[in-house]
Design brief:
By secondary structure, the chain is an alpha+beta fold. It is 29% helix and 23% strand. α5 (139-147) packs antiparallel against α6. The model has no long low-confidence stretch (mean pLDDT 91).
Amino acid sequence: MTFQLGVWHADKPLSLGAAGELFDRVSEGKDPGLKPAPAMKAFFNQLLLRYPTLDNWPTEDVTECPWEEQPRFSPQYLIFTLMAAHSEQLEAVIVDMALEHGMTVYDPQTPDLHMPPSLEDQTFWRLETLSNELVEPSPEDTQAALKDLKDDGESYVLLSQCATAYIQAVLDQGEYVVEYRDKDTGELFQAINKDLAPVSAAFAAYRTGHAAWKKSLAWEAVE
């Protein structure tokens, strides 16, 4: 099984969906539209010092080489293809090294997104659904998305203010399951309600930063 990771340097945060689209463009050989970054070379060299390419791996220990494909340098965007047996260990190393150099890592398998603290804490409002993604959505955009939720337990509306904080809702068997992740603590809370009105009110207040959004629903901590 192929295991891949994408690495790049960004000046602003991206949503998970946008990161996936960027990864797909690079995988298809298209220009990612990113500026070359000196940090990319420094990161690449440091990584290969620890995990050399197959050409430079000791012959007597070649089965331990973690690369399924030879890493190739690009000053804009790097894609690493790892051996499945080594993917967990090497992913942790790549993420740690990349973050130290101020870069972002995208894992298309999960999918998952790792950004340096300087980007994670930036307010970057975005609205995501199964079929759409909007940056800096209007209140009307959010309310329309909530009204369009399908009662299937899979459709969702997610409104995030940065990479680590969000509020989201799913409609399942006539009940709105709403969750939010606290920006300061990272804790997850959940509320369940059968009426759309208080759910819409919570989303609207969350977008404006008004504390009322915490009072419109009965939240409980998720263990």
